[in-house]
Amino acid sequence: MKWPPGFSSKSIWRATNIDNLSNETNQLPESVSAPVPQQRGGGGKIRASLRWVRTHKFLTVCVLILLFVLTEALTIPWFDVARLRTENPGLTALMQQRIDEAKAAGKSFKISQRWIPIARLPETLVQAVIVEEDGTFYSHGGIDWFEVKESIEKDLQERRAARGASTITQQLAKNLYLSTSKDPLRKVKELIITLLLEQQLSKDRILELYLNVIEWGRGIFGVEAAARSYFGKSAADLSLEEAVRLAAVIPSPLRHAPDADSRYVARRRQMVLDRMAARNMINHPIQGETLSSADTTAVSGAPPDTGQSTDTLYPDTTGVDEDGHDGL
User: Fold this and answer.
1) What is the pTM assigned to this prediction?
2) What is the C-alpha separation between 164 and 79, in angstroms, rounded?
3) What are phi and psi of 287, to 5 degrees?
4) Rounded to whole angstroms, how far apart are CA atoms 200 and 141?
5) Cβ contacts of 124 within 8 Å, gap of 6 or more
6) Which residues are registered as beta bridge partners of 287?
């Protein structure tokens, strides 16, 4: 018997082994299967994190509070304040807020502002603003704690925000970096920025910044723009009457115009004159608690006493809270 060419005992051995291996593979028990690869992902880590949170609730709250405080702290202008020693600010937070409000309402908004050094302003204007807004400006460290105490007592008595206690420095902090919101967190940030301003800047520089950035009407920011808008002249040329009127409307510049003869303007204008006279800033006597009509006329050209009350002379139909600050 002849074997096929190339066929040998080795070929027979190889074929036999292959058949045996195939039979063994086919005879594997059905319960044995190939291992399933594990799925990779963050599911396990997320479940572990949730278990940690559930078992460490107090610590979790503390961590979240700390992260929130750190995030808010980053929004405080720790290093920007020092720049204000030599540089004038550009667009302030209040200006941006007014722009956003107008945009949301579908209205256009134009900012009118011109910078003027405090050295060019009349002394009577500076004095009128101080007695109107912050009589102890040059003696406190940014916060008038007496006024804060009085404000809290009155608010508690009337169960509403009836009296403001913001100093000029606090108002500047809000104008430059914050908003008109009254939430407690904003108040804390305001106090921190106020202390930074007092630490980094001189009182005169704080006052100069304040007079040049505060709101004096829709789109009107700063005393120079206000003087030109309402009286058609530079703030450097304002008379006592015009200066007092500008100071009188600072608490409510969006509701009252300094060139209007409203009851509000008349009352606050008289109050500013009385305070200036009490401090010998103007040389006119005081009769009781107010200047006499003759002296008031001599000082500011106000109408003489006609026997009518100021409510009749200056009717007021606004009905607004006179203790509030529109933009402050």
Assistant:
1) 0.71
2) 29
3) -110, 115
4) 12
5) 238, 240, 243, 244, 276, 281, 282
6) 290
Which domains are assigned to the chain? 61-313 (1.10.3810.10)
Calpha distance 209→206 (Å, rounded) = 5
Q: Give the 3-state DSSP-derived string for 166-213, with helices as H, strands as E and coil as C.
A: CCHHHHHHHHHHCCCCCCHHHHHHHHHHHHHHHHHCCHHHHHHHHHHH
131 neighbors 272 (Cβ within 8 angstroms): yes
Please return the burial class of 316, using the count of CB atoms within 10 Å of its CB with bins 0-12, 13-18 and 19+.
middle
Over residues 196-249, the pLDDT tens digits come to 999 999 999 999 999 999 999 999 999 999 999 999 999 999 999 999 999 999
Q: Is 49 helix (H, G, I), strand (E, B) or coil?
A: helix
Which tokens is 18 given? 């292959």
Residues 12-68 have pLDDT tens digits of 445 555 455 455 545 545 554 555 555 555 567 888 878 877 887 777 777 766 665
